[in-house]
Amino acid sequence: MTKRALITGITGQDGSHLAELLLENGYKVYGLVRRTSTVNFGRIAHIQDQVELVPGDMTDQTSLQEALQVAQPDEVYNLAAQSFVGTSWTQPTLTGNVTALGVTRLLDAVRHVKPDARFYQAGSSEMFGKVREVPQCETTPFYPRSPYGVAKVYGHWITVNYRESYGLFACNGILFNHEGPRRGIEFVTRKITHTAARIKLGLADKLYLGNPDSKRDWGYAGDYVRAMWLMLQQDHPDDYVICTGSTHSVREFVEITFELAGLDIGQHVVFNDPRYTRPAEVDLLVGDYSKAARVLGWHPVVDFRGLVGLMMEEELRALQDNRRDW
Ligand code: NAP
Ligand code: F7E
Prior knowledge:
- This protein is 41% helix and 15% strand.
- It is α/β, with parallel strands linked by helices.
- It has 2 domains: 4-178 and 218-242, Rossmann fold; 184-216 and 247-285 and 303-325, UDP-galactose 4-epimerase, domain 1, CATH 3.90.25.10.
- It has a 7-stranded parallel β-sheet, with helices on both faces.
- Helix 5 (147-166) links the parallel strand 5 and strand 6 (169-175).
- It binds NADP nicotinamide-adenine-dinucleotide phosphate and ligand F7E.
């Protein structure tokens, strides 16, 4: 029988990759979309005729219940969030409402409308924040450093709580940073590749960045959505760290990008611009995905250099074709 899935956040980076993966696997895919004054279906334009879009918002309980009624999903992937860490300081209560309480709303809707549905919660390495151990794994204590990180810790524990209280098949993926050509332009990797491509084509001159010394475990989004799906195919619900196991600084990301573009960093890049530094920083993230490898058989495919390369290639292609930014 055809499996049915509901994805919240289908218009985002991960939602679009996950929808592709589920369609390839023969699923009927439903996507929750919120009302915006301008339609922003750019990332799913190529599959829009293959998915059913249902209206709803993570801040509106009734719409979530209605979406579940319509979709009757076997699997629910909760990817919707206010996902930009920087914005979480300027909009902390909105971030809490969407990224934290939104998880409870959706879990509660699942509990009432489709309690046998399997549930995936998009957790984050930002929950580790000021890290208590290196590398970080499923048992590493959380110490979030932003309103976003705090909201994700709430989302994590409410998912565990609904699993333990009501027996829901609910899993937390603790995903480290994952990127690609569909990444939002405000995140540092995409900002770097996009601006470098513009500089290369003579459309810009300078790249202004904040802290160049923070280190992240960066992987490719296309690899990471496979892990989400695998979590929901197991016999038992559980929580998993998903990462590459290697870490690189923002400066290294700039160096490789500029090397690939044949550009001079000294001439074009300004670091430590106060507009892009944060009230509290997460200095170092590096994960250990041995549980996911052992239980799910999951491994990342794209490495750091490969990731920068594929983002840069697509930036140049998109700019030359005059395609719109996400
Ligand atoms: P993204 O590109 O920012 O996408 C976020 C999605 O959430 C968009 O579809 C957005 O819709 C939707 N959304 C935001 N507020 C909403 C609301 N009130 N109601 C309904 N939908 C709403 O994020 P992503 O990178 O794909 O990440 C997916 C999830 O994984 C997020 O929960 C994020 O926090 C988490 N995560 C991401 C990473 C990463 O490195 N990418 C790592 C760990 C965890 P619009 O298109 O209308 O804005
Ligand atoms: O910052 C530094 C910045 O905004 C990475 C989200 O997907 O991953 C993401 O959160 C680092 C930080 O991602 C600029 O200070 C320097 O140290 O790309 P980012 P993030 O904060 O790591 C986690 C796992 C998530 O869950 C989140 O949803 O780069 N940095 N200069 C800069 N960052 C930005 N954005 N812009 C700069 O100019």
